[in-house]
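Weekly sync, protein design subgroup
Attendees: M.S., D.O., the rotation student, P.L. (late)

Item 1: inverse folding check
M.S. brought a backbone from last month's batch and wanted to see whether the design step gives back something sensible before we order anything. D.O. pointed out we never logged the input encoding, so this time it goes straight into the notes. Structure tokens as presented (156 positions):
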């Protein structure tokens, strides 16, 4: 793996590949995400000017992040989604993509939601300086609480 990691906006051609592994990810299967449904969601994001970046290594798209600049309380940035391709996880790509999104956001505060059962992602976010400030029971699907994580950026 000699190619370096780069970041760029999502392109239409990236969508089928991302949708394939997102639909195969157990986390999103719990939310009934399908390949076609997720592809449509990304395409809609692209069409409506959403801020979605991908991480690439060579020709491979190995991750994406969806950022909403003032998506929390019309005041703070909100990380709506982040995913790393299964074979590229645990290698620092998620950290690099989050740092890229944080820099792009230029926000004093960043919020995100993480499922109560997704303890791996909770540890990941904690390593990056986020901590839980609240909990929304049955918010997206019945029986699952969404934990509200928050990070105040030190330099803004
Ligand atoms: C969660 C996810 C985005 C993390 O990306 P990643 O590339 O695997 O994570 P990284 O390798 O960059 O890890 C960054 C840091 O978090 C830590 N970390 C990551 N996963 C961890 C885990 N399961 N347990 C403990 N620490 C963990 C790493 O040790 C690393 O710490 P360090 O940089 O201080 O050594 C990725 O695994 C993923 O896409 N998971 C499935 C989808 C998902 O859960 N998305 C988030 C919820 S929407």
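Designed sequence read out in the meeting:
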């Amino acid at each position: 793996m000699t190619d370096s990691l780069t970041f760029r906006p999502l392109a239409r051609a990236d969508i089928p590949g991302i949708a394939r592994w997102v639909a195969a990810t157990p986390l999103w299967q719990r939310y009934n995400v399908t390949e076609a449904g997720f592809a449509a969601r990304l395409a809609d994001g692209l069409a409506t000017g959403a801020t979605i970046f991908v991480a690439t290594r060579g020709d491979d798209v190995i991750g994406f992040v969806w950022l909403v600049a003032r998506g929390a309380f019309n005041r703070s940035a909100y990380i709506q989604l982040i995913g790393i391709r299964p074979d590229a996880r645990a290698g620092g790509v998620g950290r690099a993509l989050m740092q890229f999104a944080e820099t792009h956001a230029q926000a004093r505060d960043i919020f995100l939601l993480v499922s109560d059962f997704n303890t791996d992602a909770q540890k990941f976010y904690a390593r990056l300086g986020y901590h839980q400030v609240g909990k929304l029971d049955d918010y997206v699907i019945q029986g699952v609480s969404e934990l509200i994580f928050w990070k105040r950026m030190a330099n803004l």
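Discussion: The mean pLDDT is 96. Residues 5-152 form a domain with the Aminopeptidase fold (CATH 3.40.630.30).
Action: P.L. to compare against the previous round before Friday.
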